[in-house]
Amino acid sequence: MDKHQKLIAQIRQEMGRKTTKELLEIWVENNRHVWSKEAFEAIQQELFDRRVDIPAQEQLKENSRGIESWTVEAMKREIKRWGAVLVLIGAAQFLLKGNMYLQWGVVLVILGAVHFVVSHHSIYLIDGMLCLAVAIIDISSGKPVGWFQGAILFLWALAAVTKFAWYNSSKERQIEVLTKLGRLPKEPKPKDISQIPGRISPNKVKKMIAQLKRNREWIDWMVRKDAADALGELGPMAQEAIPALEVALEDERKDVREAAAKALEKIGEKD
């Protein structure tokens, strides 16, 4: 028996303790973020031995989850670059004489600086409206420099609104567009299953607990919900996460509270 077969056998010992209903739920959900490829092989063998009709699996969740994480991180980096450009545009306003232009320049510089603190896509909508207002003011100055800066700001405003619409669209739409453009990120590497057969490692559990406690940015509620969902999939093996999940029951977001409640139920279930 080679190493791969031994690993499958170890996982089957764990899976053998689960009810057929539980195995079918894991199989159909097809969550590759939590369960390894070997785990699904073991589940398939176990269901076959129990003479159960094996249903079709849902579309892989690993890729969509990976894309969601990738787009959020890309957005955060992009917002910071966007802010740096706004600071430069605001500084350029000082080339136009007049208190009104100087005041708008200061506003743009401050807005650009805010981009290094705020990482939510709604900042693009604010950019668009403000840049459009400054563009109109610059063009109305009647100066060549004003026309030039106004034209740049007008285009920048259109780009900002487009960015807002993109990040405000559904993840399914983003995946569709990225697929057509050939810009999808590479598939995530297989999860570490060396310490817990078929499961993510204890270090990953601690990482998810840390993610469950994140509350520094507007977008972090999604991270907390995903962490609660993943911990719930671990069942009784995520006992150490119970205190953090109990705190999450009081989370400001309903989605996080519901995910934490479901996770606590799964962790408390008996095999």
What key phrases describe this protein's structure?
elongated; Leucine-rich Repeat Variant; single chain; mainly alpha; 271 residues; 12 helices
Word description of this protein:
Among the domains are: 71-168, no CATH class; 201-271, Leucine-rich Repeat Variant (Alpha Horseshoe), CATH 1.25.10. Helix content is 69%, strand content 0%. It has helices spanning 3-15, 20-29, 37-49, 61-92, 99-114, 122-139, 144-168, 171-181, 202-212, 220-234, 242-248, 254-268. The chain is elongated and about 80 Å long.
Characterize this entry briefly.
The protein is an all-alpha fold.
Helix and strand run = HHHHHHHHHHHH
**Largest pleated sheet:** none
* Weakly predicted, low-confidence segments: 61-66, 186-200
Helical fraction: 55-70%
Inertia-based shape: elongated
Proportion of β residues?
A: under 5%
Structural class, by secondary structure, is: mainly alpha
Give a count of the beta strands, DSSP E runs of length 2 or more. 0
Show the helix and strand layout.
Blueprint: H1 3-15, H2 20-29, H3 37-49, H4 61-92, H5 99-114, H6 122-139, H7 144-168, H8 171-181, H9 202-212, H10 220-234, H11 242-248, H12 254-268
